[in-house]
Amino acid sequence: MPEPKNKTKIIQQQTVKKLFSRLMELLNEKYSASGVDLLDVANEFGAPVYIYDGNKIIEQYKRLVNAFKPVNIKVKYACKALNNSAILKLLKQEGCGLDTVSINEVKLGLRAGFAPADIIFTPNCVSIEEIQEAVKLKVHINIDNISILEQFGSIYGNTVPCCIRINPHILAGGNTKISTGHIDSKFGISVYQLRHVLRVIKSSNILVNGLHMHTGSDILDAGVFLQGAEILFDAAKDFPDLQFIDFGSGFKVSYKEGDITTDIEELAASIAHNFAEFCKEYGRELELWFEPGKFLVSESGYFLVKVNVLKQTTATVFVGVDSGLNHLIRPMLYDAYHSIVNLSNPAGKQRIYTVVGYICETDTFGWDRKLNEVHEGDILCFKNAGAYGFTMSSNYNARFRPAEVLIYNNKAQLIRKRETFEDLIMNEVELEF
Predict the structure, then answer these.
(1) Does the reported pTM lie above 0.85?
(2) Which CATH superfamily is domain 83-292 in?
(3) d(C-alpha 253, C-alpha 115), whole Å
(4) Rounded distance between C-alpha atoms, residue 303 and residue 213, angstroms
């Protein structure tokens, strides 16, 4: 027997209501990290503020380690990307080591509880005195020029081991400013200078326990790593006391929808096979080291800012926010892209805006971006802001650096206070005139 027409109409109306209700849920979906609403974090700690999702960092670390099983892999987090002690401790508890590029980064690592044996020191263009200070702290020393190698050898001979950073002359990376392995790079000792290096090592009886390379950041092609690997494997034949081979990092992460990223699992399968074959030829198993920075922390980060003003010109609608290149310099320095979303109006109609900062020179975060309609006072979120955000921030224009918050165990916790005027002038020495 057919349903009454009025009952069918009621069912249709209920279905439409359910669909409309679900649509509104999706439109009003809150942006969150590990279940914590980002807008709530901004309300609690203010803006601008950097927020990091601890669970995402751990997920990335485990993904990398698991991809390379059963190779004896050691991950050394490149803390130049984000060096807050809370982040360092989080990775340390997972078993991660540390890659440092300055003596103060070494000290930050030791302060966070890393054992000296788990820290590698890879500086560039520093004095021998800084190298000596690192030796006293008993961390791994990585040397990237012949002058320092000669001085190191004359001081320590074979009493302190060191690693050698080789420049393989491979042009790789998403931007020339972050390509470090090409022929015109200041980093590393040219692979064509190996014979000179070997003479220095022999004359000073230097103990070399590792070989290192880092070709650049944002590398997509696994072939780049494999090409560099073959160069290191070939060079290793002249170094009988190696304990590890260090491939640096440079894994590409996604900054916008549709971005191609480094396929870690594919890369691991290729390198693991080649590394195993190399170890057989070398005569014993070595450790395989990587030094990821951006790969571990970039996607964990969100940078929240408040809209100060909307300014419409004859050609552009500007969204002026309470931040600038003093807090996030990557867009101006590297032409880096960060997705921007309006947390305060997720269901609003999309319009075209150019998002700019409050610094007294051009500091554009994003040109002609589609954002849900923006109003003064709204909170905007820059995604993928965990790497090279706060660590490259400054006090330009006498502005304060922002607070940092870690979301972990379903809780948002302050891990760095927002600066104050007292912080700004604390190191000045007053003169009487």
Answers:
(1) yes
(2) Alanine racemase (3.20.20.10)
(3) 29
(4) 32
